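Final report, Chapter 2: Outcomes

The project's central promise was a pipeline that accepts a single protein chain and returns its three-dimensional structure in a standardized token representation, suitable for archiving and comparison. That pipeline is now operational. To close this chapter, we reproduce one record exactly as it appears in the project archive, with the input sequence first and the structure output second.
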Amino acid sequence: EMKLKIMSYNVYACNGRDGKTSPERISRVIAMHNSDIIALQEIDVSNHMHQAKTAADLLPANFYYGSNSMLKTGSHGNVILSRFAMKLIKRGSRPCLVNTVYTGKNGVLRVEIKAHGRKIQVFNTQLSPFAPEGMMQAKYLTGRKWPGAPGASDPLIMCGDFNAHSNSGIYDFLKEHLTGIHFQASGKRRQEANMDGFSPGLVDHIFVGKGVKAGNIKKTLTALEKTASDHLPLIAGLMVKKLIKSLAVSPIPGAQQQLP
């Protein structure tokens, strides 16, 4: 089995709880944990601040960015970073209910990562906090529009801010297709993943498909992590069945970068 470390982190446009906007500080949080795959939600890209590229350059890492919504001076979306070679499979928005305040703010990004000869499908997403809309989006993610999501031949990891607690209908629905690591891994996290005052509770999750299982979940409680965003990063060790054939890691620097 091949061991990988993955991080899922809602960075809140790199806006800290101290009122400062700092992609450099978010990059320090990421670098602390030396993860192989990093999925960030709520990251901004504009002419004066490309937060995804800043993080990728500082780590350094390969990355793909997917826009979810347009801002006055740029866009707002998700990014996947990795030390391994990867290619974009699909990125886009999900269906939204009419006349909700969350319309157009959620999206999904899917890449294929090649790690030590093993292809891994990685999804990074954020669901609507409006439960009926979030359930509709969860069903979309596991349907034909994203072929192979629940039954892909390659190992699959789906992570992000699902805006749904582990006792919710959305979480139960996703568990019918994938395995949630919170109750599979050793050293279960005791802290709250979401720290803002509006939707407290464990809403950041990592789900895995066949061929992947959780080893452990790492607690994240440092002062830097508590300040950098309104969420704490979710970090897990995963074990993936590996192939005999080996694939070289893409060279860094000169990392592959996908700009909007």
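Archive annotation: Residues 23-33 form the longest helix (11 residues).
This record, like all others produced under the grant, will remain available to the consortium after the project formally closes.
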